[in-house]
Amino acid sequence: MHEPPFCPNHHCHCHYPIDDQSRRRWYCRDGSFVSAREGITRRFSCRYCGKRFSEATFSTDYYAKRRINLYRLRRMLVSGVSIRAASRQLFCAPGTVARRLVILARQSIAAQAEICDHHTSGEPLVADGFQSFWVSQYHPNNFNLLCGSESQYVYALTSVSLKRSGRMTDCQRRTRDRIELEDPTDPAALERSFGELVNAAARLWHNQRVIGVRPPGSCVLVTDEHQTYPRSILPFRASSSIEHQTVSSRIARTRENPMFAVNYLDREIRKDMAEHHRETVCFARNAAQSVARMWIYLVWHNLEKPYRISPRSQRTHAEVSGVSPVTVQRQRRKFYRKRAFLCRCTKLSEAQRRDWLQLHWTPEREIRRSRRVTPSYAAA
Ligand SMILES: [Zn+2]
Questions:
Q1: Which candidate, 66, 73, 42, 70, places its Cα nearest to that of 56?
Q2: How far is ligand 1, taken at its centre, from the CA of residue 16, in Å?
Q3: Are residues 209 and 339 in the same domain?
């Protein structure tokens, strides 16, 4: 790094884009120090707010004592390797992998948010919930996915913790009721969470109308016949002209099925992520980190994974959804090199901001009423 790109203090005006004239004078050299990780590291200070920082502040290894190969870690996490197995491969503690995983998730969320206005295919959208669990089978969750029906690009992700339902023995039902008594699940959480997904669909449709790539008409959203979905879509129907189409989940899950995009993603997530494999000892112990891992997987799917392997396609899912190859390449280059800052990511949705700050409570492990302290460097 030849010169620091901006001041890392988000209260300082130099944190935000500034004109070239003042850019030259906003910082001054402030000596150097020797770190075990980087060797000699230059230090700077901001002339306006006095904030001191170094070259390491802008590295993706920020606030870390040790350098971990993030490229290798990301490849492992999206290939069915569990946290402990990854830590054995990288000769570090599982906690080190867990902290780097959050960094990878923030880089992923920033990349996803930056290209949110570049989709031009105008394809119908498909939404569905991928169900898994965290902590135990008494805490099922839903990862709600919004995908392009042709590109299988994931446009939005929201997550929610649910109350266990379905067939149970009497003993299991008593345990479920005891847990619910101590820490009740919000019955409206799924409706709200799916509503956020519909909001993302409405925003995407509006952006495509503004840049003129979508013909006038309604935004087609295909879902299964879940009873909650119509209630979530209702508030957006009038303002965004969302046309809701439903498909029975009993029909064959083939390429011709209108829900193919989410069925395909469900299958890929189930086989590629260790915590979602069925009947294994791998499962999510922490809700916020589970969401972080899902972001890493989905953005890798969007930006790195070939669209088809037979016949082999050179394009990614993002390119098929209408993002230019130049934009995709730029995001891929930035991913490991430039640390993403929360305050500079202006296009984050509310759900993405929550995922970035890890504001998800793990059932039975954390008390909802207690305050969660987010490290200031994560909120910068
Ligand atoms: Zn400053």
A1: 42
A2: 10
A3: yes
